[in-house]
Specification:
Methane Monooxygenase Hydroxylase, Chain G, domain 1
């Protein structure tokens, strides 16, 4: 490379400065997005999850993510650029649920009055907030559903274990009753056998030398004598 083709020191310095600025800008953007994510995460927990019931909190998160995703998908659709705070669903899931309306405001919705009606209207300059906030909502919903699933499985396993334990106790009780019945039957048989042996031992033995086969008690007579022997 000839001397004329080489960039001048000024050009090299400018290129280096541009790279530094680009790196600084990228780093600054990453820091800002990280801070936004942390802000939205805090708005979810403890903001929404802790002060409300699990069912109400999850319903609010799903409503918020629906609003955000609709607007991200169709940013020019006026229907998705605002919501009425007096709407029954919005009132129940965003206004009455603690922390939910604050999340909507952080997404970029601002209160306005139109024709004496209270609305929350999206500020187009907050599109980046909307994108980050929607991602955090989906993340939080997935985690909460997974957590509730684990709890349900745990309860089901505990219930099954309790039922199995109760069945084992019942079977053990029945086995004990059966064993006792068999033991009682065996002892009764032994007692009856012993009783039979005792009765057999009390029977008078037959005299095999007696003509009649019966031993007679009393005074005896001799043949040809009319009087008993003295």
């Amino acid at each position: 490379m000839s001397e004329s083709d080489r960039p001048s020191p000024e050009t090299l310095a400018m290129a280096a400065a541009l790279r530094r600025n680009e790196n600084t800008t990228n780093s600054s953007s990453e820091v800002q997005e990280h801070e936004k994510r942390q802000t939205f995460r805090r708005l979810v927990d403890p903001g929404i999850l802790r002060p409300n019931s699990k069912e109400a909190a999850l319903a609010s998160l799903k409503t918020l993510v629906t609003i955000a995703e609709n607007l991200l998908r169709e940013p020019d659709n006026p229907k998705y650029q605002q919501f009425k705070s007096t709407n029954d669903l919005i009132k129940r899931r965003l206004v009455e649920t603690k922390g939910a309306l604050e999340y909507a405001i952080e997404l970029g919705f601002r209160p306005q009055v139109k024709a004496l009606q209270s609305y929350y209207v999206f500020n187009p300059r907050c599109m980046e907030n909307l994108r980050v906030g929607a991602a955090i909502l989906k993340e939080a919903i997935d985690l909460e559903i997974e957590k509730q699933g684990r709890m349900k499985r745990s309860k089901a396993e505990e219930k099954a274990a309790a039922a199995a334990a109760a069945q084992n106790i019942k079977l053990a009780f029945l086995d004990d009753r059966k064993t006792k019945a068999l033991r009682d039957e065996r002892e009764r048989s032994i007692r009856e056998a012993r009783k039979s042996d005792t009765q057999a031992g009390d029977v008078t033995m037959i005299d095999e030398g007696s003509p009649s086969g019966v031993v007679m008690s009393g005074v005896g007579y001799t043949l040809g004598s009319s009087h008993p022997e003295e």
